[in-house]
Amino acid sequence: MIKTIIIDDEQHCIDTLSIQLQEYCPDIKLTGTFRSGKAGLDAIETLKPDLIFTDIEMPQMNGFQMLEKVKNINFSVIFTTSFDQYAIRAIKFSALDYLLKPVDPKELIASVHKVKLQVNRPPAAQFDLLFKRFQHNPNSFNKIAIPTSHGFELIAVAEIIYCEADDNYTLLFLKDKRKITATRTFKEVEEQLNEFSHFERVHHSFMVNMNEINRYVRGEGGYLVMSDGSVVNVSRSRKDGLLKRF
């Protein structure tokens, strides 16, 4: 059983999520619900949960601020939030999970399933990325968190040559010749890399680091020769956008 707590300042949100967890997630053992970040902090210390659901926008102390005060985040986190694009961008940047309110049962089941598959808890550095991104510290944006089947890797963005879609996974090709399989869709990885102006989607299956292009060869769409010698196709529909970047 996954020991779980809910932290949210709105009681009706707590009630709804509690019912959904009971109905759709039999592996969850709900051990407490709390109405503030301060109460949540105390509960994390005393109950030692495996998983917390926490709202982001709460009075006095929001969900991010609460987590910053936790000395050792040795549990999984699923954020619950109304549509707050800035907060969501910060969460996606650090490859953490979130659910939009009102919570869809299918998305809830999928998020809990991800927690069950985790071999290791999210590393502290992953949360550091989240906090720095939310505080909008531009000097901190040199790495992104990439979830893999074994946990997470923190990768320097400048080391990525290009990304390729692979069904529900994404392949990242790095300068050191490594190929990393991210357990995220191509769209999710693209949303992370959109924070960096030197990445360009050139095909429905490819996104490239513009700094790592050695040559463009014309054609119907054409293709790129990357710094590692790889060839990346350019779709006809994205050709003009790429040429404008040049």
From TrEMBL:
Alphabetical list of SMART domains matching this protein: LytTR, REC
Pfam families: LytTR (PF04397), Response_reg (PF00072)
An annotated Gene Ontology molecular function: DNA binding
Positions of modified residues (4-aspartylphosphate): 55
Record domain HTH LytTR-type: where: 144-246
InterPro entries: CheY-like_superfamily (IPR011006), LytTR_DNA-bd_dom (IPR007492), Sig_transdc_resp-reg_receiver (IPR001789), WalR-like (IPR039420)
Protein name stated in the entry: LytTR family DNA-binding domain-containing protein
Lineage, opening ranks: Bacteria, Pseudomonadati, Bacteroidota, Sphingobacteriia, Sphingobacteriales
